[in-house]
Amino acid sequence: MSQDTPSSTATVPAAATAGEGARQGDAFENLLHETRTFPPTPEFAANAVVTAEVYAEADADRPAFWAKQARELLTWSKDFDQALDWSNPPFAKWFVGGEVNAAYNALDRHVENGLGDRVAIYFEGEPGDTRAYTYAELTEEVKKAANAFESLGVAKGDRVAVYLPMIPEAVITLLACARIGAVHSVVFGGFSADALRSRIDDAEAKLVVTADGTYRRGKPSALKPAVDEALSREGDAGGHTVQNVVVVKRNGQDVDWTEGRDHWWDETVGAASAEHTAVGHDSEHPLFILYTSGTTGKPKGILHTTGGYLTQTAYTHKAVFDLHPETDVYWCTADVGWVTGHSYVTYAPFINGATQVMYEGTPDSPHQGRWWEIVEKYKVSILYTAPTAIRTFMKWGRDIPDKYDLTSLRVLGSVGEPINPEAWMWYKTVIGGGDAPIVDTWWQTETGAQMIAPLPGVTAAKPGSAQVPLPGIAVDVVDEMGESVPDGHGGFLVIREPWPAMLRGIWGDPERFKDTYWSRFENMYFAGDGAKKDEDGDIWLLGRVDDVMNVSGHRLSTTEIESALVSHPAVAEAAVVGATDETTGQAVVAFVILRGDAANNGDETVQELRNHVGKEIGPIAKPKNILVVPELPKTRSGKIMRRLLKDVAEGRDPGDATTLSDPTIMQQIAQSLRK
Ligand code: WT7
Q1: Domains along the chain?
Q2: Distance between CA 4 and CA 33 in Å, rounded?
Q3: Which of the residues bear the PTM N6-acetyllysine (predicted)?
């Protein structure tokens, strides 16, 4: 890999953390001019679902374009009167006056239209067990779950916390909530009891849906104990709001049981009636909350509503993946704990009547060919995954995928972090067999749906670039002053016009919503990403420009991990950086100053601290490295200079340290690490 490949992960970390803008210029200058382009094959273009005219059509009248999609893709219980109400920015209302039921649109209407026998989900469990649900069967399960949740006192507007592995019950739960108008709040199964509890408290959830556990690399892995622990402790406000816990039996492990509160899924949902009539909910009715890391310690509850979210997720799923629902088999490898598992597993594929694969486990269980075995077995035609996975497969070697028949694959998607051109080319040639287009999709939990991506039947693709805003989406790159930069220049990624799937706010905190996204530039949404427009005007994403890290496509807050570290009695001070990592994009590296006795017990303490972060936030946040140092580099005003620590973490000679309160600190750190 050349040093300065465009948007390669090597350039991303240099894109500077907040307040360190000087360095960012260098990163932009480092970009090469990518010359390779891959236009769609004539056959692909001829059969494409979406053609080039859509851009002009959308540009002519964005709200009208989206209104047309809303009416084409969804069945409204009551038609809307107005496409967009932007009279009170940044609070948008889309498809005003309309009523729509997400679950009816995802399920019942397909059955009514004679598609009841089409497979909705091919489920592949980690131990090798399989299940398939037709649309008719899935509809019935969702109706039963809806009745069961209602019988447990869950009503429209109530919040339901979901802490489940990647099993069909996860999407059944989410769609059942949507059906009755309850607001789901999924907490990723890799998060800790503490993280679960704080999210339950913030959303004031009435019901928790969980499982005894799941499987990880052939072994049972528990979930229910974290729920028990979360609900047994004192929260910030004392007690909690949870009245019932529904438990899916998945791995058969013994679980503790709280009589009256806990209910087995099989008994409760199993006994419920399969008759349930879906009613339309207001287009702006809350659909879900999903917590994501921000630049401060407290995760933000990103709020999405119904009509606009469903419209944009369904449209992009169809257009960007060139979905032909009658023939395609779609597989998105994301967990339901992340936004991709909401938009492109739970909602869009079913709204579009697609057949999808769902896999519970890890890519190397029981062997490193498991994914490709699944692709071969189900004849997967559209695969949507993350660059970190692709880089892992590259490391394992092409002889593994080469053993399988992957000729069914015709569209390959990427999401979560910049995909470096080498990984892009490998994905295209080794996995896609050369012809399959790659669609690199940029978006965020906050945007709800894809925002920047090539259209596979239209765009001549460029390795490493997400390229163009989708039809009806107004993305730009601006400088410090908010002025649009010319082609060939870099700056900050912004969104200039409201879009249907945009977040409607941060749960319970409208001010934070305005401060975080709408205060940096006037009348523009600030995404927190650095970006560059190349000579053709194509957009290259350069990674976060704030204190947010991206580890394996998962968002982590430096501040949140620092808070977790200093909450341990052995730690006096901590600073966390995201260091470039060949496989995971970035890796968490922590620098800590230990207190008194702990300092003499370095190795043991470091292990304890890793576990402590795992317990406070979750295993995914555990630092890869914890370096014990005597001091932290700070400016004279006391701000930790993470940029210098990042240099150390990445094995570079830290640059200019003259602005430090004590310029010798970097030497002291280097010395202590050599010991
Ligand atoms: C952040 C959002 C979108 C679902 C998964 C992550 C980074 C996402 C790309 C891409 C470059 C990307 C950005 C963004 N990101 N997709 N195709 N190219 N960077 O959702 O956890 O909300 O994270 O992920 O930095 O801001 P998320």
Answers
A1: 552-673 (3.30.300.30)
A2: 10
A3: 639
Is the bond preceding 90 in cis, omega lying within 30 degrees of 0?
yes
The DSSP element (H or E) to which 227 belongs, if any, is: helix 224-232
The mean pLDDT value for 378-405 works out to 96
Residues found in the chain: 675
Q: Does the reported pTM lie above 0.95?
A: no
CB-CB contact of 459 with 427 (8 Å): no
Which residues, 6 or more positions from 565, have their beta carbon under 8 angstroms from its beta carbon?
Answer: 571, 574, 576, 590, 592, 609, 612, 613
Is residue 66 within 8 Å of 83, Cβ to Cβ? yes
Give the amino acid at 288: F
Residue with tokens 């209302």: 93
Would you state the structure tokens that stand for residue 473, as one six-digit string? 């989406």
**Alpha helices (H) along 321-368:** 339-341, 348-351
Which residues are annotated binding-site positions for ATP? 416-418, 440-445, 529, 544, 555
What is the largest distance, in Å, between two alpha-carbon atoms of the chain?
Answer: 74
- Give first-to-last CA distance, the chain, whole Å: 32
Place of tokens 């994501």: 292
Q: Whose CA is nearest to atom 2 of ligand 1?
A: 444
Q: In a 3-state reduction of DSSP, which class is residue 313?
A: helix
Span 528-569, pLDDT tens digits: 999 999 999 999 999 888 888 999 988 898 988 998 998 999
Residue nearest ligand 1's atom 17 by CA: 442
Question: Rounded to an integer, what distance in angstroms lies between the CA atom of residue 527 and that of residue 505?
Answer: 14
User: Does the pLDDT at position 83 exceed 50?
Assistant: yes
Q: Are 358 and 345 in contact (CB under 8 A)?
A: yes
CA atoms of 477 and 260, how far apart (whole Å):
55
pLDDT at 28 over 70: no
Instruction: Determine the pLDDT at residue 20.
Output: 35
Residues with CB under 6 A from ligand 1: 292, 338-340, 415-418, 440-445, 466, 527-529, 541, 543-544, 550, 553, 555
What's the pLDDT at 33? Answer: 57
In angstroms, rounded to a whole number, what is the distance separating the alpha carbons of residues 136 and 131? Answer: 14
Whole-angstrom Cα distance, residue 156 to residue 183?
A: 8
3-state secondary structure of 89: coil
| Atom nearest to 553 CA in ligand 1 | 6
Task: Compute the half-sphere exposure of residue 293: CA atoms within 13 Å on the CB side of its CA.
Answer: 26
Q: How confident is the model at residue 366 (pLDDT cuts 50, 70, 90)?
A: very high
In one letter, which amino acid is 164?
L
Gap between the Cα atoms of 344 and 632, Å rounded: 42
Give me the long-range contacts of 20-27 (CB less than 8 A, separation at least 24). Answer: 20/641, 20/642, 20/643, 21/480, 23/643, 24/490, 24/530, 24/545, 25/490, 27/490, 27/530, 27/542
For residues 579 and 587, what is the distance between their CA atoms, to the nearest angstrom?
5
Instruction: Give binding residues for Mg(2+) as ranges.
Output: 566, 568, 571
Q: Where are the beta strands (DSSP E) in 475-561?
A: 475-478, 490-495, 505-506, 525-533, 539-544, 548-551, 554-557
The residues facing 445 across adjacent strands are none
